[in-house]
Amino acid sequence: MTAELRRLTCIVCPLGCEIRVEISGHRVLRVEGNACPRGLNYATEECTSPKRSLTTLVRVNNGAVPVTSVRTTKPIPKGLLRDVHRIISEVVLEAPVHRGQLVLKDVLGTGADVIVTRSVKRISESLGNLNALS
Amino acid sequence: MREYSSDVVVIGGGPAGLAAASSCLEAGAGRVLLVEKEAELGGILPQCIHTGFGLLELKEDLTGPEFAEVLEERALNLGAQFLMNSYASRLWLDEGGVVVECVSPRGIEVVHGKCLIYAAGCRERIPSEVGIVGDRPSGVFTAGTAQTLMDLYGLLPGERVVVVGSGDVGLIMSRRFAVEGAKVVAVVEMMKHPGGLTRNVVQCLEDYGIPLLLSHTVLEVRGKSRVKSVMVCELDENLTPIGGTEREIECDTVIVATGLLPEVGLLEKAGAEVDRSTGGPVVNEFLETSLRGVFACGNVLVVNDLVDYAVEQGRLCARSAKSLLDGTLQRPEAWRRSAAGEGVRFVVPQLFSGAEDVTFYARVKKPKRNCRLSLREVPMDIKLPIVRPAEMLRISVKRDYLSKVERLTLEVVE
Asked: Residue B222 and which of B7, B24, B144, B364 are 20 to 30 A apart at CA?
């Protein structure tokens, strides 16, 4: 298999090394341009199994606000971000919701849970009545 | 008219104000009353739903809303009092300390305090302040407004987006739009380098294939009822448009993310000295402004890039307020001055006594590699592999050095 050359900017520290990685299939053949071993790890992981945390929103019924924010409890494979986002966007929670509340367990088998990051109170009864009148 | 009194009054319930309130109560500085204009605490944190908050403070990588709730719970548990939905509209000093006049749905509220911690944060630069002209259709938002609509109310402000400004705010909002299904067609940056952290350029733009137009500006917004397009062009070294490079980019939304301005009006009207280079008040090492008993912290003091710094400044204000109330806050006959030298845009605090160790914050003008941060008047010289405007420098200087000089100049040299 022919080797492919990829260029990345390291994000481990503010130095921002321009790293060149030679890859064949999923194998990293050579890493150049990194100033330290952390750059080697970053480049290797970024080229073989890149991961990202996902933060987005879910709808909340009967809440003081109509949405709350959620996050994955750890980074998930970058290639799954779109699918995980779609699954999260189909969820509707019932207020009240609390910070840390579990939304999805082990989403798409990534080992990461999706949890609530912003508590939302249930809309008060009185306010509900006011809305009903108007 | 309702009147309230407290030992310490805090204006602003964002991270700096909440940290200040908690630390005052922990230090036993008496009663604390916090005035907040919104119905919710946390300042800008609740709408910053991305991670990266609290790494230094809590050793955890939290999102903005989580970090805000942690700070809020701490202040509530310690017994802080809150005056919510109350907008501080005037402030003055009297023999008892400080008086703040506020407007709220309950009417006029007057708050008396022995001292004041001012943590009112920033406002955003608006399009006309950055020279964007043309039609005035709907679809032009500041980044903060778009963030409020999306992340607090769940509304997507547009589908084809041009972002003006590549600071961290612009980069993070670009990713938010991309994640929620909008197409970000360009991020336009005047300078020839991105304004934000490399991490954010990689993870917010490159991950989503969003083009970054460096040395470019938006000349004009076009559209009748809704934004139809923007005219962009290239800029030369002097940031002057280059003729013949104009082109039209179709979009329905323009997001202006061109920087923050400390909300300093109230302090200025009360007579506080303001530093042109930070946009915030001039303070000494106790973060006391030129008004006795009025302290400043968070983004109104200096636009911070880490929430941890805002919290740190809030804590320092609390210690200073406690000293003031105990009658031990130092006030030397003459303050010594810090100054921004070559390559440095500002230094905070601007004044120091020479009797204490001081943590200075500074920001460089341009990115630079393999340079030294040099303190001209004292034998301190720190080698830095890289400096960037996006990352504030934080440097502690011992009083042994500070006591020997009248002036301290920070510069970044080869």
From this structure: B144
